[in-house]
Structures are given as structure tokens and as C-alpha cells.
Amino acid sequence: MAGSSKPPVVISRRRVLAAAAAVSSQIVVRRPASAEAQSAPATRTASLDLDRFVEDCVKASSDSDPQQAVLDALARGVRDPRAMLLALGEPQEAGIRVLHRSKALTIFSAAWTPQMNLMPHNHLMWANIGIYTGREDNILWRRTPDSIEAFGAKALFQGQSTALGADTIHSVTNPLGRFTGGIHIYGGDFFATTRSQWNPETLSEEPSDGAAIRRMFERENERMRGRGRS
Ligand SMILES: [Fe+2]
Fewer beta carbons under 10 A from the terminal one: N or C of the chain? Predict the structure, then answer.
């Protein structure tokens, strides 16, 4: 894993996994959606400074506990989800927008179409997710001798952020009739790492396939355009 050769990162990962093991779930919601942020008049919301947000995350990634420090920066970034929404724009189609990519850190925004599903997959590096519009339902999976099995779930609403351990396997659903948008941050070069995904019907493990994911996004956008025509 890119960036994992640095001792502080290894120590941090152990701490993160130990913390994750201390609770029954591998996923911990850091901050509830702010009722104040949800109800404040729109005229009071200023756009978030995206460059500064990315800068904060990059700076946090060199902390002795990079995942926690980046999670704190992410939580600040989505605490007022409308400010992030103003910065990124209302999602119009499924896709990702890379905001930062290095060997040690990947940051992108991801948009899911209404009712979009993503098959079970792992990351092989720590991951933080913050939702700035809509909702993302996570099913958490764990390995069995032959395959994987679901063992937990967590719904993330806009304004919330969460940490996933490096061994997390999850599948993702947007349960809403509108787009969901989130910021996804990984402790490594997400795109240069061959990971695993699991067939959603047979749960057989396969190498992650970026081309297949891109086709899935295209199919989703085609589905939305079809909905628009009907
Ligand atoms: Fe994921």
C-alpha cells in the first residue's frame, strides 16, 4: 500500500484497527448532521474553499495519526453540507472528481444516482467518507472461509463523516430518489491499488476492475437520461 512504509502510518493503522475492534462495527459515525446547518437560511451559507479544504487534508495526512487527523478535517468540511455542495455543485450525474492524488493520499468527490448500488469491495487502505448531499447506506461485510457475509450496516446522512479500517469490505447504496454526493479520502493511491470486489449475486471474489466500474457509472447515467425522457 502506498505510504504504508512510513512507521507512523503503520502505528496509526494499528490504532485505528484497535479502535474499530473495540466496537462491534468497523464503522463509526463521527458527527451527527447538524440541525443548525440543516435549518440555517440559505443566504447565510458561503461556499467552502475547496483548495483550502484539500490543503487541510494533505497537511493532516502527515499527522502521527493521519486517518484521525484527516477525518477531523473532513468532518469540518462537511459539517455544513451546503457549503461543500456550493463548492462542488449539485450532482447531475454519477461519477467521481479527483481533488488530490498522491502515493499517500487520494481525495475525490463521488456522486451516486438515485437508488444506485455499488457491489461489495475493499480498499486495502484506510478510508474516510463524508456526505455533503443525500444519504449513503453501507452494508459491512466480513470474510468467511469461503466467501464473505454481511454483519452490519450504517446509514450516513449529509453532514456526517465516518472512518473505515484498512480491512473493511463494504457495499454502498443510495436509497434516495435524488443524487447523493460524498467526499472519499484514502490513505494511499486508491487508483494504483489492485483491490477486490465481490459479485453482488454470487459473492465470488474478483480483482477490482476500474473499466467495469466506469461502465457501471455510464449505465447509471444512461438510466437517468432514460428516466428524463420518459
Ligand atoms: Fe468503498
Answer: C
* 197 CA → ligand 1 middle, Å: 10
C-alpha cell at 145: 472461509
User: 127: burial class by Cβ within 10 Å (0-12, 13-18, 19+)?
Assistant: buried
Distances (CA, A) of 129 to 32, 88, 173: 13, 16, 14
What's the mean per-residue pLDDT of the chain?
A: 86
Q: What is the pTM of this model?
A: 0.81
CATH number of 50-229: 2.60.120.10
More confident residue, 230 or 140: 140
User: What's the gap in Å between 164 CA and the centre of ligand 1?
Assistant: 9
Task: Tell me the CA–centroid distance for residue 38 and ligand 1, in Å.
Answer: 26
Percentage with pLDDT > 70 across the chain: 80
- Are 165 and 1 contacting, i.e. CB atoms less than 8 angstroms apart? no
Q: How far is the CA of 35 from the centre of ligand 1 (A)?
A: 27
Confidence of residue 229 (pLDDT cuts 50, 70, 90): low
Ligand 1 centre from 40 Cα, in Å? 31
